[in-house]
Description:
Blueprint: H1 5-8, H2 14-27, E1 33-34, H3 46-56, H4 71-85, E2 95-98, H5 101-112, E3 118-123, H6 128-135, E4 139-144, H7 160-165, E5 166-171, H8 186-197, E6 200-205, H9 226-229, E7 230-235, E8 248-252, H10 254-264, H11 273-284, H12 288-310, E9 323-327, H13 334-345, E10 347-348, E11 350-351, E12 362-366, H14 371-384
Parallel strand pairs: 1-10, 3-4, 3-5, 5-6, 6-7
Antiparallel strand pairs: 2-8, 7-8, 9-12, 11-12
Helix pairs in contact: 3-11, 4-11, 5-6, 5-10, 12-14
The protein binds pyridoxal-5'-phosphate.
Amino acid sequence: MRFSRRVQGLPPYLFAGIERKIAERTAAGRDVISLGIGDPDLPTPARVVGALAQAAADPTTHQYPSNQGEPAFREAVASFYDSRFGVALDAATEIVPLLGAKEGIAHVCLALLDPGDVALAADPGYPVYVTGPMLADGAAVPLPLRAARGFQPDLEAISGADLKRARMIFVSYPNNPTGAVIEDDFFARLVAFARAHDLVVVHDNAYADITYDGYVAPSFLQTPGAREVGVEMFSLSKSYNMTGWRSGAVVGSADLVDAFWRLKTNMDSGMFAAVQRASVAALTGSQQCVADMCAVYQRRRDLLVEALRAIGMRVTPPKGTIYLWVPVPDGYTSASFTEQVLEQADVVVTPGAAYGACGEGYVRLSLTVPDDRLQEAVRRIEERVRL
Ligand SMILES: Cc1ncc(COP(=O)(O)O)c(C=O)c1O
């Protein structure tokens, strides 16, 4: 069978390889601690599960849903954006459900790029910022994120040649994998930059409410002029431990939301209506569950930071996301340290270079395992890996 150049050119999906390695070692009887994939270990709040059960028992949810989303779903997203971010969205024209932010990130490229066009993509960044443009026969040009600039891209350093071909820009804060957050006027500068260069901003807001130390993350859409130049990919996955449910929304520019919806009507038939109703329960009910979960992650973050520092590793505690972005010890690359930690300690971390060339020199550790497993992971690294 001959496959398209598009598919042949795709790199292997990072986590598919990691899952395989975990499965192999577990099958061989080893006790593997995975700090690799960022998949919350805590359950979805009971009231959300209850809403799903009730909705699933209602036969009116069993048919094709509207892929523009049930009005109640769009209104729930609008009311959440209003109360959480002070952003007033028109539920009729500025919101369309997504089967997770990942779907939005991949598909928005089909709405914005023609062959040869470019997406400027945060590096290190979520891998789909690179593969999404490839699937649209475009390309991603990396936007380096460096610690010295707080992991914000230097917009002024983008070359004229790249800007000429660029149609869109992917950024995400709170940031995976670096944990960086926005505490200055970056979004305002981004809006001005997008206007000046006729770029569409796609802000991936997958970690909107996973924050610590009292920090509250803004929506890109809070920035004056933002919705004229872009959209935000909003996700319920991390805030409500709903990664398996595939629920999110693309919100912002009515023109782009409409184009996105027209595209989607040709690719999927919308989000299961019962999941839409459960998502309404998540977004409109008490948000205490989110605060409780952040408290758990914050405790794990502090514990892991302290344990890593105690064995001589340099770590900055992040104010958001469920990751620690840790420089590897001297003498290692991100891949060789990852390999050693797996081979010697049966601990899975992800190599920073898998998130882009600028991730070299780092590994990412996920906070999605219980305290005792985090402690055990660090103990094994200390005992078995040359640091
Ligand atoms: C930065 C970022 N964007 C998007 C996603 C995907 O989110 P969803 O589950 O809503 O597809 C993830 C998942 O880990 C992520 O880290």
